[in-house]
Amino acid sequence: MIATLRYVLLTAVKDRLFGVLFLLVLAALLLAAFLGDAALAEGRALSLAYAGASGRAILVLGLVVFIAFHVRRLQETREIEAILARPLSREAFVLGYAGGFAAVAVLLVVPVVAGVGLALSPPAAGLAAWGASLLLESLLVVALALFCALTLTSAVAATLAALGFYVLGRMMAFFADIAEKGVGGAGDLGALTPLAEAVVTALFMLMPRLDLFAPGAWLVHGADWSAAAPVAAQALIYVPLLLLAAMIDLRRKRF
Amino acid sequence: MPRLIALFLLVLAAQGAFWVWTREARVEAALVPPPPSERAVAALAFGDAQFLYRALTLRLQNMGDGGGRFPPLRDYDYGRLAGWFRRIEALDHGADFLPAVAGHYYGASPEPDQVRRMVTFLRAHAARDPARKWRWLAHAVYLARHRVGDLDLALAAAHELAALEVPDLPMWTRQMPAFVLSAAGEAEAARDLMAALLASTPDLSREEAAYMRDFIARMDNQAM
Questions:
Q1: Measured between alpha carbons, how far is A213 from A232 in angstroms, rounded to an integer?
Q2: pLDDT digits over B12-42, tens only?
Q3: pLDDT band at A189 (very low <50, low <70, confident <90, very high)
Q4: Does A168 contact chain B (CB < 8 Å)?
Q5: Angle (CA) A224 A226 A231, round 5°
């Protein structure tokens, strides 16, 4: 476990993941500060909202790309076969790598939160809640990217699948609205309307509610602790769900 | 090789023909595009309504300015703008960026009808949360009185402001209808209103009471 953790961290350093993401976050903070200065009013709030959203996007993109290509490299070099030839269960393999990637996620979340906090001084409780929620979101993204990378044979396909899934998860407020009020204003779909609504309802039921994670409003107006419980519950359910799916898929594979 | 060159020249000629065909075509972006639907906003937010609120309000602040053109406010479609304001407001009613853009930027139009729309927006915005938003009602009174010159509209907004049941509002918010009436030449009504306010407010500072008595005296002189 410790060896896997060290190996993953070493690869992240070698891939310049930390350096590149820090630079991107710094650029995002500078851009956010610039945009805040351009606003007619509440410039700091605008900077916070932009910094939070762009920091999250950079973090998610970095994690997904790193995990997809790291796992692909394991498969191409047949390293995965060498690891699984040892007395190590496939479940332990998934857990070990999930732990390693989770450590990378923690090391990436900390500077994002610290950067936003130091540069833009949001309310302390809001920053703490936002940071914790961002950490849970990034853990969910780690599990999602690991599942896609282990399931799909191409790193590009895994990256696109994970990002597509993530975007859908972030659009759940939109699907929730359709599930609640019907297709309605989206145009007349005729006989397909019940089918479309059933698909959306199924999507709404199965997809993670990523739209609840790390809202920028917490950075601007302070923490809303009543909204924190569903975020924690969603992460507690969906991270194990994805890891279990990855374990089941890995068990079915022959190397 | 000669065939390839001939083919290349043929495709290049096709590009020339395409240019002749499309050279008049321009992407004519409307100065104020139609506001997004409620569902489009839900989809665009990606779960971060605060970010979308700031991004759309910043877009509204800079709308139409770009590509080397800075059209005058009178060319803007304020009907559509009102739609944008309603849509964005739903994302964060507590913030002041949007009313600031409405009041301080779009409210600076030289066209009275356009400013009236902003006054309507500011009144509705303040009515949702008067305890925090009453200043925008005061700004609506200012726009109606000084930029539109519509004293009836200003008086309606001033009465709304004075009637707010918000503790610790400054005295001038209660006096606002009297000021507007005075500007409208209704000296007697302004005097009566200020006198009623003076009589019904027991804990006035000495300076405030003196100012109100002075106002009443001036209105008396005007009425005579």
A1: 9
A2: 999 999 999 999 887 667 889 999 988 889 8
A3: low
A4: no
A5: 90
Question: Which of A56, A60, A166, A174 is the best mutation test for B, with the most CBs of B within 10 A?
Answer: A174
Contact A42 B104 (CB under 8 A): no
Residue B2 — φ and ψ, nearest 5°? Answer: -60, -35
Closest listed residue to residue A217, CA positions, set B111, B58, B92: B92
A227 touches chain B (CB under 8 A): no
B87 close contact with A: CB closer than 8 A: no
CA–CA distance, A116 with A28 (Å, rounded to integer): 10
Give residue-wise pLDDT tens across range A75-87. Answer: 888 888 888 777 7
End-to-end CA distance of chain A: 21
Take residue B212 and report the two structure tokens written for it.
């109100």
> Which tokens in the block code for residue A222?
């302070």
Using the 8-state DSSP alphabet, how is residue B66 labeled?
A: B
pLDDT tens for B97-112 read: 999 999 999 999 999 9
Q: Which residues of B touch A50 (CB under 8 A)?
A: 51, 54-55
Say if residues B33 and B80 touch (Cβ distance below 8 Å).
yes
Dist CA B127 CA B189 (whole Å): 26
Within 8 A by CB and 6+ apart from A101, the residues are A8, A63, A66, A67, A142, A145, A146
The closest CB to that of B95, out of A42, A186, A210, belongs to: A42
For B77, the token pair is 């479609």
**Quick one: tokens of A122?**
């949001």
- Continuous segment of H or E residues that includes residue B81: helix B78-89
Residues of B in contact with A171 (CB under 8 A): 43, 46-47
- Using a CB-CB cut-off of 8 Å, the residues of chain A touching B57 are 39
Q: Answer whether B73 touches A (CB < 8 Å).
A: no
Report the complex ipTM.
0.85
Contact A46 B97 (CB under 8 A): yes
Q: Do A40 and B45 touch (CB under 8 A)?
A: no
pTM, entire model = 0.85
Nearest residue in A to B103, CA atom = A40
